[in-house]
Design brief:
The chain has about 350 residues and is of the alpha+beta class. About 55% of the residues lie in helices and about 10% in strands.
Length: about 350
């Protein structure tokens, strides 16, 4: 998963930003440049000489001062050009894999100070962004768009796969035949899908103003799947942790997609030889959410009163009416809504 601070840094140089406009001008002019986005004490301690400008940032001003050989110091918000033609002296013992002087200096400054540094190669027109230990090379927009479109196709495929396992879970819930392996399978599929979404979101960040159509497609494909994800966790967790806390817990076990054992442990279940075959019952949060205009507090009261979905479905409207916050009209709506849910679940696709 990408470093959030690196993504924030990439946003500053994404297409549509004033800084990206200046970088594009510098690339076309083949002058090269070394930019530091930060003028705090850690940076200023490394600055030797140069011209103090303290002038309002504009793409044209940055383009002009980039014609000089030294580094350019901007404030962190890219609102002012603080210094031009400055020499930077980071610690030489900081390791660097870069061969060019400009890029090697930029990498060391970023590692030593934690600030964002942008190096533009004069000969190769390669733009490299450094943030702490992270290194990122800006890529051509057409290349990023092609990668984003490939990822969108993959996301569409995985969304179909997720919809299928959720339909199978619906059927199993109506048949009272859910096992822990079914729940783990759904949550693992969702994790695979979110990995693809995260990749596309990184592409959207890189694309800047060119990425809005990609973002719209992702939003349409994902819909309210995050809420569905949360409700599945609430239905099957034995822990008092929130869905967000549970997700963070099982994600912390692996860089890649968590295994079934990681997921079930985070839900509060013990791992034993036959743990995936363990029968489990949903509390009913997800099914009740499908009842139109049923408030959250009413769902909570029903789950608290009946314990699980099967008991709620067995209850008559008169019995549901006795639960605090339900009432006669809502009791009928709940019975009708759950009956509709049973019909829609239908026979399993397996």
């Amino acid at each position: 998963m990408a470093d959030p601070e690196l993504l924030e840094a990439i946003k500053k140089v994404a297409p549509g930003t004033p800084l990206r406009e200046a970088l594009d001008n510098i690339i076309r002019a083949r002058t090269g440049a070394l930019l530091v986005l930060g003028d705090g004490p850690k940076i200023m301690d490394l600055v030797d000489g140069g011209v103090r400008l303290d002038a309002e940032f504009t793409p044209s001003l940055l383009y002009e001062v980039a014609k000089m050989d030294g580094a350019i110091i901007l404030d962190r918000n890219v609102e002012r050009v603080v210094y031009a033609n400055a020499s930077l002296w980071p610690r030489k013992e900081i390791p660097s894999q870069e061969r060019g002087i400009r890029h090697r200096t930029g990498e060391r400054v970023a590692i030593q100070t934690g600030e964002v540094v942008v190096a533009i190669s004069q000969r190769r027109n390669v733009v490299t962004l450094y943030k702490g230990q992270c290194r990122y090379v800006l890529r051509d927009i057409e290349f990023i768009l092609a990668k984003a479109n490939q990822a969108l196709q993959t996301l569409s495929h995985y969304r179909s796969a997720v919809d299928k396992v959720i339909r199978d879970l619906d059927h199993a819930e109506m048949e009272s035949s859910v096992c822990l392996g079914d729940v783990a399978s759904v949550l693992r599929r969702l994790e695979m899908l979110w990995r693809i979404v995260e990749d596309i979101e990184r592409y959207v960040v890189e694309l800047g103003s060119e990425g809005h159509l990609v973002k719209m497609q992702v939003d349409e494909m994902v819909g309210d799947l995050w809420t569905e994800h949360s409700m599945i966790i609430r239905d099957y967790t034995l822990s008092d942790a929130s869905p967000e806390e549970t997700i963070r817990e099982y994600r912390s076990h692996a860089e890649d997609v968590p295994q079934a054992s990681h997921i079930t442990e985070s839900l509060g279940y013990s791992i034993r030889a036959d743990y995936l075959s363990l029968p489990v019952s949903p509390k009913g949060h997800r099914a009740l959410r499908r009842v139109p205009r049923l408030p959250g507090y009413a769902r909570e009261n029903l789950v608290r009163a009946y314990g699980n979905l099967l008991n709620i479905m067995k209850a008559t409207p008169q019995e549901l009416d006795r639960v605090d916050g339900i009432g006669e009209a809502r009791a009928k709506a709940i019975s009708q809504g759950l009956s509709r849910f049973r019909r829609e679940a239908g026979p399993s696709a397996n």
